[in-house]
Amino acid sequence: MIYGIGTDICDIRRIRASLERHGERFACKVLAEGELATWRERSERWPERGVRYLATRFSAKEAFSKAIGLGMRMPMTWRHCEVAKLPTGQPVIVLHGALKEWFESRSLRAHLSVTDESDYAASFCVVEK
């Protein structure tokens, strides 16, 4: 049974501008520890890849927050929601802390799709019970 559906489109130029304005502090606000390490690695080798990585994670977390019906309010936080990937490359949601407890107590399961192209990153999330 579908619990919720969320979608988000993110302007990569807006993420780039936030990074230019706030530096790494912006990435630290949005990304979980594992994501932050990947972002730093990608940004160092090719800055544009780092921007795109951050934009896809931002978009995916927004889509997930809409699918669970909370938006960005507790227990949903940027850093308690992590976007990882399976060995196949499929993106998955990994939850931490109070958000993980909230999600598991409702026996929910998330399915995620992310993409980026030119100036936009987009995500689609379906949560089922």
UniProtKB/TrEMBL annotation:
Its main location: cytoplasm. GO terms for molecular function: holo-[acyl-carrier-protein] synthase activity; magnesium ion binding. GO terms for biological process: fatty acid biosynthetic process. Its EC number is 2.7.8.7. Mg(2+) binds at residues 8, 62. It is found in: Cytoplasm. GO terms for cellular component: cytoplasm. Its cofactor is Mg(2+). Keywords: Cytoplasm, Fatty acid biosynthesis, Fatty acid metabolism, Lipid biosynthesis, Lipid metabolism, Magnesium, Metal-binding, Transferase. Coiled coil: none annotated. It catalyses: apo-[ACP] + CoA = holo-[ACP] + adenosine 3',5'-bisphosphate + H(+). Residues 4-125 form the 4'-phosphopantetheinyl transferase domain. It comes from the Bacteria. Transfers the 4'-phosphopantetheine moiety from coenzyme A to a Ser of acyl-carrier-protein. Belongs to the P-Pant transferase superfamily. AcpS family. This is Holo-[acyl-carrier-protein] synthase.
